[in-house]
């Protein structure tokens, strides 16, 4: 380290030291040192987020009726108890099947619609494309309660066809869920489309494929990971959805698990069977998201686009 | 093998006053070109000169604002890209990642209603032709850049187009592979006989491969000619500067004198033997570095000799570049070939004379940029 340097023919120049001093100790500022703070904050966050969930899952295996006092291990609330366990209680099993039914319907309807909308929006050049793009984002940014209430009003108060033909119930629930799910599909597919760029479609057209053929034979296979990922996102969103589903429900037959949990969570008359139902929900959602991840990895390895695969994964987790 | 691909005749392209205007920018400003069938034609120019836009209009991805595109006499104006008998090799190759190499090459034939067996056979032949037969089952991402480029070439040529468009296909490759592929591309084109229209900003590429070159600048074509014509007889300062290195000096043209044109550079009078010999007034003179001679200072200088001082010498292996600062203020570059011995490494500040032979000194009307231009 030199504080001054003399050059021929010039006055002495003070040069800054080779290593600038820092007020933090060396073990902290070392860029290759162990990431202590990062590890600490991560573990604290994981504990904060997961411990309550783990506790709830644990208590579903409780031996007594209490959901807060541990009385021993048992599977009575899962299948043991003939009246009150999850798989013997029609209220619970109906709610479970209805949840899965809604999720499957929402997934099967929202994904193709969202895919086509994404393709259409990306090609629309003329007037109206700006407002269409904006409108597509509105369901994503509207508070869910506002959307649920407005849907309720539309289906019950508006005396205009086709709204009069739709009553509250499963149909209304599906429509409500698809309405906001489409936006998620569009965002995921469009971002992947933007990453791919227009070249492959141009190459396909140059080689003789019409617009439809290039979409079917080139774009769709290339977008498949994004489409599958967004389908699984729709599934996960639908399974967990509460507000819209609640407002669009009509009777006990249209109850889903989140609605059930909301209604019973603070009551005194419920058993750990409720925890069991909640555990099933957690597992199903995990399978959904885990499946999305595995699908993307398989596709990534298959076509070798390492960086593009992680980009799709980023879409997935970025949205969530 | 080439008979799988070779075409008999056809492929003459005619551009007539073609224009493309985007919102506030005119990318292509009324260009007219005639490309003969079977020719290797290059569009050469810097980035933003409109060469890629022109290519895309011929391929069908951009719609011309004005003008005509005719292929073998048929207008392409309202024909969508999938119906034109024109194929493109893209700069990034655009090989479909979800298909293997053979399926990539066979892709286009499906839309020509070619039966499956024949598709595979022709695809295999095309891969043989570009010497990639062994890699048929690989995926594009498993190939090197040069191999991908060849697959893109095979994929386009297997469809027997009348015209093949290449958009800077060698841009993404390193220098050695590029040089090798230049020769391969040229011999492939001669073998197959398809008209090639090649877009590039690399003048060495254009010079080494083309039958004719169109030098483009700012949406216009400055000059069309064979590589020799364009290099030896540039029509404008831009062309002179863009192809190779050009020494440009501002001068005043004094009119015709016998077989040349007298020009005044500083206080010296030179005779320019080629170019616009009849011009007068503000002009520029251009001479190539390899034509300039560096000679020792003499008392009675010959014709076209300018005194100056050596600024620096740069040895690049095959030749020695000598930068000389003339007394008129400009710096010119002379290129002396390396014959092994007798190479004089002039030191900085040495007074010398620079001789510009009249037949190599070109006069062009108009005010140019002073001093030796970089390549």
Largest interface (CB within 8 Å) is between: A-B, 19 and 26 residues
Oligomer: heterodimer
Number of helices of chain B: 8
Helicity of chain A, as a percent range: 55-70%
Structural class of chain A: mainly alpha
Q: What is the CATH architecture term of the domain at 93-270 and 285-316 in chain A?
A: Orthogonal Bundle
Q: Over all CA atoms, what is the radius of gyration of chain A?
A: 27 Å
Provide the CATH topology of the domain at 93-270 and 285-316 in chain A.
Answer: MetI-like fold
* Helix and strand run of chain B: EEEHEEEHHHEHEHEEHHEEEEEEEEEEEE
* Biggest pleated-sheet summary of chain A: 2 strands, antiparallel
Helix content of chain B: 10-25%
Describe the protein in words:
- The complex is a heterodimer of chains A (320) and B (375).
- By secondary structure, chain A is mainly alpha-helical.
- Chain A has a domain at 93-270 and 285-316: MetI-like fold.
- Chain A has helices at residues 26-29, 36-59, 76-80, 90-123, 129-141, 144-157, 170-196, 199-206, 211-240, 243-247, 257-264, 273-303, 306-319; strands at 4-5, 13-14.
- In chain A, strands 1-2 form a two-stranded antiparallel ribbon.
- In chain A, strand 1 (4-5) and strand 2 form a beta hairpin.
- In chain A, helix 4 packs antiparallel against helix 9 (211-240), helix 9 packs across helix 13 and helix 11 (257-264) packs antiparallel against helix 12.
- The longest helix of chain A has 34 residues, at 90-123.
- Chain A is extended.
- Chain B is an alpha+beta fold.
- In chain B, strands 11, 12, 13, 14, 15, 21 and 22 form a seven-stranded mixed sheet that branches. In chain B, strands 6-7-8-3-9-10 form a six-stranded mixed sheet, with helices on both faces.
- In chain B, helix 3 packs across helix 4.
- Chain B has helices at 51-59, 101-106, 116-129, 145-157, 175-192, 203-209, 227-232, 237-242, and strands at residues 13-22, 25-35, 40-44, 66-71, 74-75, 86-89, 163-167, 195-200, 212-217, 220-225, 247-257, 260-265, 268-272, 274-275, 280-287, 293-296, 305-315, 319-326, 331-337, 351-355, 362-365, 371-372.
- Helices cover 21% and strands 36% of the residues of chain B.
- Residues 1-7 and 368-375 of chain B have low confidence and may be disordered.
- The two termini of chain B are 40 Å apart.
- In chain B, strand 12 and strand 13 (268-272) form a beta hairpin.
- The chains are: A mainly alpha (320), B alpha+beta (375).
- The A-B interface holds A 199-200, 202-210, 213, 217-218, 221-222, 303-305 and B 59-61, 80-82, 86-88, 90, 92, 94, 96-98, 107-108, 110-112, 139, 141-142, 155-156, 159.
């Amino acid at each position: 380290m030199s504080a001054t340097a003399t050059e021929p023919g010039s006055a002495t120049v003070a040069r800054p030291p080779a290593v600038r001093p820092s007020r933090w100790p060396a073990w902290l500022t070392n860029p290759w040192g162990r990431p202590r703070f990062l590890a600490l904050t991560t573990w604290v966050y994981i504990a904060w987020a997961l411990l309550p969930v783990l506790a709830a899952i644990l208590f579903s295996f409780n031996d007594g009726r209490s959901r807060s006092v541990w009385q021993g291990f048992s599977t009575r609330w899962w299948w043991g108890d003939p009246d009150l366990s999850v798989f013997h209680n029609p209220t619970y099993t109906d709610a479970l099947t209805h949840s899965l039914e809604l999720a499957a319907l929402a997934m099967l309807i929202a994904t193709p619609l969202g895919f086509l909308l994404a393709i259409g929006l990306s090609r629309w050049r003329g007037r109206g494309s700006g407002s269409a793009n904006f409108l597509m984002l509105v369901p994503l940014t509207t508070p869910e309660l506002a959307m649920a209430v407005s849907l309720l009003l539309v289906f019950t108060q508006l005396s205009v066809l086709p709204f009069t033909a739709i009553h509250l119930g499963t149909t209304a629930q599906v429509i409500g869920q698809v309405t906001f799910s489409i936006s998620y599909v569009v965002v995921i597919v469009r971002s992947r489309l933007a990453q791919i760029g227009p070249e492959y479609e141009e190459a396909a057209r140059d080689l003789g494929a019409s617009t439809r053929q290039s979409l079917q034979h080139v774009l769709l296979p290339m977008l498949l990971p994004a489409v599958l990922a967004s389908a699984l996102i729709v599934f996960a969103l639908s399974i967990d959805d509460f507000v819209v589903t609640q407002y669009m429900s009509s009777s006990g037959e249209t109850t889903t698990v989140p609605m059930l949990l909301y209604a019973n969570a603070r009551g005194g008359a419920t058993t750990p069977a409720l925890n069991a139902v909640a555990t099933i929900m957690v597992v199903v959602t995990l399978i959904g998201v885990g499946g999305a991840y595995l699908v993307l990895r398989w596709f990534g390895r298959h076509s070798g686009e390492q960086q593009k695969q992680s980009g799709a994964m980023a879409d997935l987790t970025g949205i969530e | 093998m080439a008979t799988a691909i070779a075409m008999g005749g056809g492929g003459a392209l005619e551009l007539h006053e073609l224009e493309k205007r985007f919102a506030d920018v005119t990318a292509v400003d009324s260009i007219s070109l005639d490309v003969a069938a079977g020719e290797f034609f290059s569009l050469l120019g810097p980035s933003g000169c409109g060469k890629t836009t022109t290519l895309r209009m011929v391929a069908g991805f951009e719609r011309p604002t004005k003008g005509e595109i005719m292929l073998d006499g048929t207008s392409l104006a309202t024909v969508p890209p999938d119906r034109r008998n024109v194929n493109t090799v893209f700069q990034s190759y655009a090989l479909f990642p979800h298909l293997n190499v053979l399926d990539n090459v066979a892709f286009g034939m499906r839309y020509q209603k070619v039966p499956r067996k024949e598709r595979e056979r022709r695809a295999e032949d095309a891969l043989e032709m570009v010497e990639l037969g062994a890699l048929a089952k690989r995926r594009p991402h498993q190939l090197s850049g040069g191999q991908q480029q060849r697959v893109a070439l095979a994929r386009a040529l297997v469809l027997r187009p009348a015209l093949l468009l290449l958009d800077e296909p060698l841009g993404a490759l390193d220098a050695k592979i590029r040089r090798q592929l230049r020769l391969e591309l040229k011999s492939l084109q001669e073998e197959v006989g398809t008209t090639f229209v090649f877009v590039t900003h690399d003048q060495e590429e254009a010079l080494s491969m083309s039958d004719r070159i169109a030098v483009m600048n700012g949406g216009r074509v400055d000059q069309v000619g064979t590589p020799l014509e364009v290099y030896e007889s540039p029509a404008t300062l831009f062309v002179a500067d863009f192809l190779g290195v050009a020494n440009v000096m501002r001068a005043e043209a004094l009119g015709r004198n016998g077989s040349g044109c007298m020009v005044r550079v500083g206080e010296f009078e030179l005779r320019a033997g080629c170019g616009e010999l009849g011009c007068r007034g503000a002009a520029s003179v251009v001479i190539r570095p390899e034509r300039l001679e560096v000679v020792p200072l003499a008392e009675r200088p010959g014709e076209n000799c300018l005194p100056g001082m050596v600024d620096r010498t740069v040895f690049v292996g095959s030749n020695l570049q000598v930068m000389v600062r003339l007394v008129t203020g400009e710096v010119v570059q002379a290129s002396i070939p390396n014959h092994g011995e007798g190479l004089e490494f002039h030191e900085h500040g040495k007074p010398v004379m620079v001789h510009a032979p009249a037949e190599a000194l070109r006069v062009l009307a108009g005010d140019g940029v002073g001093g030796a231009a970089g390549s």
